[in-house]
Amino acid sequence: MISYRAETTMASLIYEKCKSFEQARALLREVFVTEANLIPNKEKKILLVRIHNLPTKAMDKRISDITNSLKSRYLKLLNCLSPQ
């Protein structure tokens, strides 16, 4: 039940980039079973996640658009939280 809620919450974040909510959830499920490289950077306290190619180029493009969108949201959040 917890994983379903997490998947649903994540799908709501990427829904605008997909044609439907179900497509957003299907894309996430595909990402979850796709192999990835995890590259930690201890100095910068960053974990780089490189997702291997998805089954179709359209999925690769969509997930690329989504990750770029999420990165920009994250950077905006960091700018708001950082002390002036």
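The above is record 1. Record 2 follows with the same two-line structure.
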Amino acid sequence: MVDTIGNTKTRAQREVERYFAGPGQANSYKVGHTVWVKVRDAAKAKLGAKFDLKTYHDAVPALRRDAADGAGAARGGVGGDAGLSG
């Protein structure tokens, strides 16, 4: 990391220790990131020209609540009552 990326030795050491202490964190982050990108892309596909990034970001907290309680799937998936249904 020092030679390839240009990180300081201290920064590189911190990164190594981070991945040893929580080896699943990076994978967990990437899985979550991938899911949210898919949700955003689905909303874009569904709404087409009506898709608005600010509105989407305002609706994300409702999407998170739906995902946590399973209500999003019960209402038919992406959008639900989160303002993305067009």
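The chain has a mean pLDDT of 81.
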